[in-house]
């Protein structure tokens, strides 16, 4: 029985056509974080923020999983043990590929959240600031996305899983955003073997016991095949 925890970031979805944040020409080169990914930005200009996520939701709806997403779903199905995917991604490509145990620590594009009563429901493809909450009726709906300055979801469950992990793998993330960037240290502290799979060394590459560099669609299936052969 092996316990594997996998952290994924925007790099795993790059070859599915979804842009990353910090690569050249990435989302944060085109938009200011303060404007589109903070509660203050939403309070100042909800139309701008909703337009940003409406466009991303429409793009994600058209995207298909790539070989990396499928390899992780296969690993979950065939592994003699437990596999948990903790994703920073707000797309649904892990689920589309067939993965079952997936925690979205930064929320989901397909989710809507009421700013007044915390009710959650499925977001329509196009959200509008006049949309009323189906539970309390207030016109205070927002994307169910964890913005900068907000607390990521599922942190207790993630801490539990990291404390029991035999293997921790970080895939396609720059290691620039906390608390996810610290998961490698937590897993290492509890004795996990730590692996980075990324296009290039991330900010925290030196904290991993093992690193492999290349496109996710190649290096993830190769690692999964080795893991299943053991
Ligand atoms: N295969 C593997 N890795 C790739 C690929 C690819 N084809 N393309 C890019 N990468 C790598 C980049 O080298 C980079 O290290 O993916 C990483 C993407 O980093 P970021 O753009 O910073 O994305 P991520 O780490 O997911 O960002 C974390 O920041 O703004 C927030 O909430 C947002 O969840 C996001 C968080």
Average pLDDT works out at 97
Q: Report the uncertain regions.
A: none
Strand coverage percent:
15-25%
Order of helices and strands: EHHHHHHEHEEEEHEHEEH
**Biggest sheet descriptor:** 6 strands, parallel
How are the strands of the largest sheet arranged? Answer: 3-2-1-7-8-9
Total helical elements: 10
Query: Total number of β-strand segments?
Result: 9
Q: What is the topological layout?
A:
Blueprint lengths: L1 E7 L2 H4 L12 H4 L2 H4 L2 H6 L1 H17 L4 H12 L2 E7 L5 H5 L4 E3 L2 E8 L5 E3 L18 E5 L9 H9 L3 E5 L11 H7 L3 E6 L11 E4 L2 H14 L1
Parallel strand pairs: 1-2, 1-7, 2-3, 7-8, 8-9
Antiparallel strand pairs: 4-5, 4-6
Helix pairs in contact: 6-10
The structure holds adenosine-5-diphosphoribose.
Brief sketch in words of this structure:
This protein is of the alpha/beta class and 230 residues long. It contains ten helices and nine strands.
């Amino acid at each position: 029985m092996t316990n594997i925890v996998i952290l994924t970031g925007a790099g795993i979805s790059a070859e599915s056509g979804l842009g990353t944040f910090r690569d050249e020409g990435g989302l944060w080169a085109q938009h200011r974080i303060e404007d589109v990914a903070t509660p203050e930005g939403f309070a100042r200009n909800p139309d701008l923020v909703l337009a940003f996520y409406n466009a991303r939701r429409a793009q994600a709806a058209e995207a298909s999983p790539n070989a990396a997403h499928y390899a992780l779903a296969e690993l979950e199905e065939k592994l003699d043990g437990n596999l948990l995917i903790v994703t920073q991604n707000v797309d649904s490509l892990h689920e589309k590929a067939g993965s079952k145990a997936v925690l979205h620590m930064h929320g989901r594009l397909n989710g809507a959240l009421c700013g007044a009563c915390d009710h959650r429901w499925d977001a329509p493809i196009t959200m509008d600031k006049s949309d009323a909450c189906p539970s309390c009726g207030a016109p205070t709906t927002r994307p169910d996305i964890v913005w900068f300055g907000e607390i990521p979801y599922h942190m207790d469950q993630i801490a539990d899983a990291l404390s029991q992990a035999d293997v921790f793998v970080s895939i396609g993330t720059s290691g620039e955003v906390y608390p996810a960037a610290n998961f490698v240290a937590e897993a290492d502290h509890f004795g996990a073997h730590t692996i980075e799979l990324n296009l290039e060394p991330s900010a925290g590459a030196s904290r991993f016991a093992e690193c492999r560099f290349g496109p996710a669609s190649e290096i993830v299936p190769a690692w999964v095949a080795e893991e299943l052969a053991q």
